[in-house]
């Protein structure tokens, strides 16, 4: 089944997020279930989603979905900007709407970095670490 596209290809928030996500070693982009997804062997971030039971709600249409470390996830859930998204939320993923809150792109990069480290192969994490050196 082909899903309709659920994003605007010219969205400036998507463009900024895409630039950050594709800066990680081996990162690629594809459209899955109508939304942009960034991955290496596994996906580490996506653009857009919704909260379970809120299919008509567009509050997460322009959100970053990411997978934080379990301890950090609990901390982030104490911040009202972060919510548990439908489908991937039960697997530890969180979302932050990038159009409701003024995004700090430095913070977004930190969230992407953590998610990348949680999902990428060790070889790519090592390559990322070597860039920082």
UniProtKB/TrEMBL annotation:
GO MF annotation terms: DNA binding
InterPro entries hit by this protein: YjbR-like_sf (IPR038056), YjbR/MT2646/Rv2570-like (IPR058532)
Keywords: DNA-binding
Hydrolase found in the keyword field: no
Short name of any one Pfam family annotated for the protein: YjbR
Protein name as catalogued: MmcQ/YjbR family DNA-binding protein
Source organism of this protein record: Propioniciclava sinopodophylli
């Amino acid at each position: 089944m082909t899903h309709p596209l659920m994003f605007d290809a010219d969205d400036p928030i998507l463009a900024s997020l895409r630039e950050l996500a594709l800066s990680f070693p081996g990162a690629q982009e594809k459209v899955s279930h109508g939304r942009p997804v960034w991955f290496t062997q596994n996906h580490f971030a996506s653009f857009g989603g919704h909260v379970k039971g809120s299919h008509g709600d567009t509050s997460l249409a322009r959100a970053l979905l990411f997978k934080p470390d379990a301890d950090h996830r609990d901390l982030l859930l104490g911040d009202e900007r972060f919510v548990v998204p439908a489908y991937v939320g039960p697997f530890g993923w969180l979302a932050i709407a990038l159009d409701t809150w003024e995004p700090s792109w430095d913070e977004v990069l930190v969230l992407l970095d953590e998610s990348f480290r949680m999902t990428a192969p060790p070889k790519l994490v090592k390559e990322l670490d070597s860039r920082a050196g």
